[in-house]
Amino acid sequence: MTRKLFGTDGVRGLANSEPITAATALKLALAAGAHFTRGDHRHRVIIGKDTRLSGYMLETALTSGFLSMGMDVMLLGPLPTPAVGMLTRSMRADLGVMISASHNPYQDNGIKLFGPDGFKLSDEIEAEIETRLAGNDLAASLAHSADLGRARRIDDAPGRYIEFVKSSFPKGLSLANLKIVVDCANGAAYKVAPTVLWELGAEVVAIGVEPSGTNINLHCGAMHPERLKTAVKDQKADLGIALDGDADRLIVVDEHGRMIDGDQLMAVIAQSWSASGRLRNGFVTATVMSNLGLERFLQSQRIALKRTLVGDRYVVEEMRRNGGNLGGEQSGHIIMTDFATTGDGLMAALQVLAVLVQADKPASETLRLFAPLPQLLQNVRYRAGAALPLDQAAVKAAIQAGEAELTGKGRLLIRKSGTEPLIRVMAEGEDEELVARVVADIVKAVEAAAA
């Protein structure tokens, strides 16, 4: 079965335009509710969200759909995506829902679904839900009047998540000697992230903690670390931590204001866990976007790297298949299945901070373990609904020429974004000028095809 509604990370789009409308959200709740209704117990659904204005609209529509299926709804309010995964499993819910478009601007929104085990749904289950959504029998699954669900707010959800995150920090360590700037992207972690760091002992400078509904990810957070870099230097902090809108992504800035990406962070955690015997089965899972420098460094540590398609859910699936407990993406999704079912920026930050505390050296000396190969990524936007530029003969020819030039010298990755109408063009190799030329030629061809 193929999926049309779901992308690489749930359903996503422009808020109040299909498929991110109240009507479609309600129908999606009906279909998902029908799929996850099994047995005669009282079914329950967990719903969390980030701070987008459209979150109220979608939360209400989804709640209505689940209630009409006879499922009780437990509303968490603004909390990180990993908190939804954790609480779905912890509270024995039949289904978890996160309303978020992650790192996208406030105009977008999305719906991510978690199964009873707290993990994001597989492609197969998403396809089955889409089949139900397209059918004409959802009305037959509606609950009788006396069996409608009830909705209530879970006031202690933030506290539950805060204690859960703190429990992942090694016992006996403290952040008491660190000054940390944390940028919460005016998003889902604007309360919990500063609290966790402060309660573990750090001196905390919090920015991006004034959500308005329209400023999530706006010139702040993991996608826009410039403000964080400035704040770290101005505050003379030991390092900075940037999360994205739903706090499943992490970027770190050292004391000089220099950015440390997800590949470097995976290397730091992998080396630490391997030395302490915590790295399960001797491998790390990353996507095809991760730098070749990471792969070479891990090899030097006798750690294997397994690559997957882009998307943290594919990283998780590979980890579960092969018994791994550490994986992630260059963009900053760090997945540690000993603790969480999905990427958790705050938990990943604590693992990095533990290494920093134990090393007792500056972040600039501790958190950069390899020199990345020159890598260039450019995005080309095309009109949604228009013909895919990658199908054009001129684009195919440009890609073929680029692959030929990089043979034996690097690698080329061209893909369609799973969340936006973008073509992503990435090249990597020893020769920076060659990489730049190959990317420029392909981008030019894609732009011409998209015009």
From TrEMBL:
It is an enzyme of class 5 (isomerase). The keyword Phosphoprotein applies. Its EC number is 5.4.2.10. Residues 3-137, 160-257, 261-369 form the Alpha-D-phosphohexomutase alpha/beta/alpha domain. Activated by phosphorylation. Signal peptide: none annotated. Keywords: Isomerase, Magnesium, Metal-binding, Phosphoprotein. CDD domains: GlmM. The active site is at S102 (phosphoserine intermediate). Mg(2+) binds at S102, D244, D246, D248. The modification Phosphoserine is found at S102. SUPFAM superfamilies: Phosphoglucomutase, C-terminal domain (SSF55957), Phosphoglucomutase, first 3 domains (SSF53738). This is Phosphoglucosamine mutase. It comes from Dongia sedimenti.
